[in-house]
UniProtKB/TrEMBL annotation:
Primary location recorded for the protein, binned into one broad class: cytoplasm
Catalysed conversion reaction: Endonucleolytic cleavage of RNA, removing 5'-extranucleotides from tRNA precursor
EC class of the enzyme, as a word: hydrolase
Gene: rnp1
Species per Swiss-Prot/TrEMBL record: Methanimicrococcus blatticola
Protein name: Ribonuclease P protein component 1
EC code: 3.1.26.5
Protein family (similarity comment): Belongs to the eukaryotic/archaeal RNase P protein component 1 family.
Length: 105
């Protein structure tokens, strides 16, 4: 089975569940610095499980995230941190993935 590689430019179009994430900045200052693993995603939110086992629901709008692409799926063979404005991910995850397939044709 072929492993799909993710580039930083394509990350907003990929599945985010399972990636490590940190809230770089948010309209809600209590969320700044929050980090963990993405465990779910909706059109408007990302659900993050922290290392302490807490689950936080973070709005995409008005939030800047830093996602870590693990070395096993990055094109460089090392972990890559990618800063993404949550506003560009405001859509249903399955629709973003469809858009990636269209852009690759």
């Amino acid at each position: 089975m072929t492993q799909i590689e993710i580039t930083p430019a394509e990350l907003p179009y990929h599945e985010l569940i399972g990636l490590l994430v940190k809230v770089d900045s948010s309209c809600d200052p209590t969320l700044n610095g929050l980090s963990g693993r993405v465990i779910d995603e909706t059109r408007n939110t990302i659900k993050i499980e922290t290392s302490q086992g807490f689950i936080k629901i973070v709005p995409k709008a008005g939030t800047v995230f830093v996602f870590t692409i693990p070395e096993r799926i990055s094109q460089t063979g090392r972990n890559i941190s990618v800063k993404i404005d949550g506003n560009i991910t405001l859509s249903q995850p399955q629709n973003r993935i469809k858009n990636l397939k269209k852009s690759r044709k």
